[in-house]
Amino acid sequence: MHVFSLQKYQKLIKIIILGIIILLIAVRIFGYSAGNAKSWINLGPLNLQPSEFAKLGIIMYLASVYSKKQAYIDNFNRGVLPPLILTAIILALIIAQPDIGTASIIFLIACSVIFSSGIRFKHLFLLVAIGLLLVAIAIPSMITDERISRFTGAYAPFESPKDDGYQLIQSYVAIGVGGLTGEGLGQGVQKLGYLFGPHTDFIMAVIAEELGFIGVFIVIGSLAIIVLRGIYISRKCEDTFGALLAIGISSMVGIQAFINLGSASGILPITGVTLPFVSYGGSSLLILLISMGILNNIAMTVKKKEQGPTPVTNNEIPNNSFIKGGKTWSS
Fold this sequence. Notes:
Layout: H1 6-30, E1 32-34, E2 37-43, E3 46-48, H2 50-68, H3 76-95, H4 100-116, H5 121-142, H6 145-155, H7 166-178, H8 203-236, H9 240-265, H10 282-307, E4 310-311, E5 321-324, E6 327-330
Antiparallel strand pairs: 1-2, 2-3, 4-6, 5-6
Helix pairs in contact: 1-2, 2-3, 2-4, 2-9, 2-10, 3-4, 4-9, 7-8, 8-9, 8-10, 9-10
């Protein structure tokens, strides 16, 4: 299998970040609204959601920058702060759509990459304090009746069962009916007009109804394996950029899954976040598949280094070969 050099990813980052910023600005001008958020660009038969591309773009950007700043990562002003300015700009553009769910995911992904880069704990606490201060300042302007209804619907659904709490109650019904083994694949009824977004935000409720606890356990277990495998790859990778990239991708899958499952179960307010690899969604699925390709490439890089040089079996000896133990090896 051909391994794509990690350094080649770094050469593409400036173009990727510039493209993401242009697309996020274009959304404000040419985008259209769906679900009370102006987050999509119509490209004929395709609908593009730039904020999904920003997830992977931020991971690649922060992984690249912090891998280059390892020599002075202890210096807050020089090693930690500069990359966060561009991150804040991208987050502001996404919040302006408004897409609080995606912005929250990107913020948490950025925190995981920054934490893994080796910064001092006092710098981390300083960043958390700054973040909380900015959130406190922004909260008054972000409070709307719709956002308040999401909190009341999540934490007091039975006080308004026909209004704010309707969606979560229907999710509870689907989960409760499923039991251990479910009603059978395709036999669920909650998706037939009772539960909004059964193919996107609340697909786990449908899985619970049709496949039961066993189906839910398989889906969550599969996602957990992907996250844990990504963390394992990051620990094995000797290249700092590759390690941070693997951490960021693993965090993206884990954080997004947690927020989606939290919304469907009432732990978190409904945010409109898809379940990775399971929910319907073109841009989201595309970015996840690209991310898995990058993660697999990092894994192959680690495996290739662990195996060392490979023997040359053909009659032609390449220029980068050497002889050891009576065999010809390729470096």
